[in-house]
Amino acid sequence: MRKLLPFTLALSFFISLSIRAPSAAIANSAQNNSTDAAERLAQRALSTTAMIDDLQELCDRIGGRPTGSQTCERAVDWGAARFRAAGIQNVKVETYTVPSLWLPVAAEGACVSPEPFPIRVVATPYSPSTPQNRPLVTRLVDAGDGTAQDFARLGARARGAIALVHAPEMKTLDDLFAEYFKNLPMLAAARKAHVAALLLQSSRPRGLLYRHPMSVVGKTIDIPVGLVSREHASRLARLAVRGNVTVRLNLINRIGSAYQARNVIAEIRGSERPDEIVLIGAHLDSWELGTGAQDNGVNSATVIDIARGIKQLGLTPRRTIRFALFTGEEQGMFGSAGYVKSHAAELDRHVAMVTYDIGSGRTNGFFLNGREELRRVVEEAMGAVPSLRLTQNPIDGIDGTDNYDFLLSGVPNLVANQDGAPYLPDYHAESDVFDMVDQTEAKRNAAIASVLVWGLAERAERPAPRQTRAEVERLLRETHLDDQMKAFGQWDDWVKRRRGVNR
Questions:
Q1: Structural domain includes residue 480
Q2: Which of 27-36, 411-420, 458-467 has the lowest mean pLDDT?
Q3: What is the pLDDT of residue 4?
């Protein structure tokens, strides 16, 4: 820093005294106006039923929404229409590419001998159909936990058999991730053992079935895989201890090449810094066993309602607020990846990205995704409404939802840190329906999201700079996201620069 001459210093001090009072008054006035707006947004979100009405319509009239299905296409049109009905003029639908199509058609299973009985089974996403779309009838072998050692123990008995793989009961988010992490090594071991198919035991009791994707990179695997109810799996295992068991498995799935899917993008243009963008998004697609209420219809309805609230209250943010309803999330976050690719030239102008994806679970804070500088940003934004102040803002990085490609591209990003207990039992399951949504917590979440997004749009400085590739690489290591990406089979896309910042 250069030294100031005494006269210059004195003059500078005099000028600062002359302008400080009115500048401070203007700043305080702007802050007060912003705080008042945040309070009004929160109060409206807590008192309105519009969001719940939207959610009920989405779930009950459209239902489950796998990307590539007609119901997902209807949901996209519905989302665009709801934004327009909320008074948002700048609404568009953007296309992107999904690497391959996978949709379930039919699934059926049975124990043939020693005791005939039907078994409840569904196909796992990205499983192929059983050969020639016909039932596979063969012996069952118990492959324990599905490890390489378990398959090696079976030896020649595994060849041509249907292997039953056990699962511990899921009770926590860590249990859920453990269920995903075992996929790649289990498939490798099953492939080496030359099994004909896999039957995975449901990790949830009382006959509950769900979609458990075997790939998050959009590639169909080479072994038919079904998910069987927990109780039926246990019965089959007990029978296998006593002697030979023969089962029938029939999986019919619609599998296709790359295709075009759509996101809904809406925005409220900023008044002072319209070129700077705060984006809040949620994924609109879901699996179809239920109606996609918790995952993730409630948060899609929240995104629409935030836009509705800003328009209803006649507010204009300092920065542009962009609202995204992504699809393709369940297949591998392809909708948000498509957005990042299409908007690559303007990512420097994205000052923050926020996403919600854990149903109506209470928001306790936001995952900072390795960006410690965002802690103060969140605290300042939420300080506008003390009754909604948050206390759990972990530094952890999150993979598996729509912040992923923004994180890899260096854009400051936040993921809602929600209570997972009400969400986990219904995740991807038949039970993910409107009735399971906690409407009170959903409204509170909408209030929090409204206040946060408004605060990000109104703050004087950008929340944080965009990171370079080297900085993102360091963040991945420090948060151990690199390990998760490797376990999910995503690391190759980063290394080969198919996803992520390249500067």
A1: yes
A2: 27-36
A3: 35
